[in-house]
Amino acid sequence: MALEYNLDHISDKQKKTNIRKALSILEKAFYKRIETKSFFLDPFEQKTIAEIANKNSIKICFLGGNIDAERKIFVANYFYEPLYEPNYISVMEFESQDISHPDVLGALLSLGTDRNDIGDISILDGKVEFAISLDQADFVEFNLSKIKNERITLIKKEDAKLDLIKPSYESHDGFVSSLRLDNLLGLILSTSRTKAKDIVKARLVKVDYQIIEDPSIQVDENSLISVRRFGRFIFDKIDGLSKKGNYHISYRKVKWYIF
After folding, report:
1. What percent of the chain has pLDDT over 70?
2. Which residues on neighbouring strands pair with residue 247, listed in sequence order?
3. pTM of the prediction?
């Protein structure tokens, strides 16, 4: 019996390719009845894989070092519960005062580490932590000794637990004539609709972790909108209509996250 799934609803080609790679791992669990583990997936990819696993009665669990981690691997057809995270992922930490999320990601990628091998990167007070696949952990620990101009000493956390900062938000509201993506971006970014369209067409915008190229798509309430170089925003809800029929909406900017 074949694994049942449908990916036709996914418009982001890169996202669809990554999900197909993850599905090849899930299929091993399905056909061979063995435990398998994936690379790191974003929340949209996790949701898609979880739905397919549930539809096909495959036992699955997601691990990222913290229950609130964004990027997680899946473990399918696991034999024991609870799962012991150090058997599946690694978490590294180092002291730092002036290193950012892009600095860490760039340094890891420059080593030749695949993006799919990198989990969440957490910038804390006086230190940085990041999740990494077990396959790459020793290589990264041995080779990553400098980020920007700062010398670092990596320490592997034995419990593979990732500390995270709670996000903080700036609350905003305003009026839009429709719930088209370009309209929302015009309000959120305080820019023209023409400029908003250009940003979308340049593939700089994600809605719920999917790259969107169509400025006219309708955005649902509670959607996460990510705009490269501008940050992340949550379109919370429609509060009402003006006398002219414009939507009064509430949204928040995520303050701590760097996109």
Report:
1. 98
2. 176, 241
3. 0.88
